[in-house]
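Structure (tokenized):
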């Protein structure tokens, strides 16, 4: 089997002789390059997480409501609600839109008081 290194890629010195693809190539490749198979090459960069202070949360229903409402926004990949501290951590692929998140939190019956 012959491997073709894509433009901008490099050959790994790892014993498995994997190919290190340029950033993003294996995610959306118009030429259909295969995904890397070595575990050390498949780790993706962590997505940014933003923490907000939210007032009015007190129970499991509050947590479920905010998790669902914020989680339905475009670009949101994770929501963690901490009732004890009154904080909501939102994980997104890009910088979150604070105004959009504040609107969703307000519509759900809570108040986003700012970033932490």
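Design, position by position:
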């Amino acid at each position: 089997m012959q491997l073709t290194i894509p433009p901008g890629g490099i050959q790994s010195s790892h014993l498995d002789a994997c190919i290190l693809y340029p950033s993003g190539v294996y995610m959306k490749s118009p030429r259909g390059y295969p995904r890397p198979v070595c575990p050390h090459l498949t780790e993706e960069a962590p997505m940014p997480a933003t923490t907000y202070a939210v007032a009015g949360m007190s129970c499991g229903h509050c947590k479920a409501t905010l998790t669902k409402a914020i989680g339905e926004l475009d670009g949101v990949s994770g929501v963690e609600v901490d009732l004890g501290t009154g904080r909501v951590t939102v994980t997104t692929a890009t910088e979150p839109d604070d105004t959009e998140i504040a609107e969703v939190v307000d519509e759900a019956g809570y108040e986003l008081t700012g970033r932490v």
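Reviewer-requested clarification: The mean pLDDT is 78. The domain at 49-115 is CATH 3.30.70.100 (Alpha-Beta Plaits).
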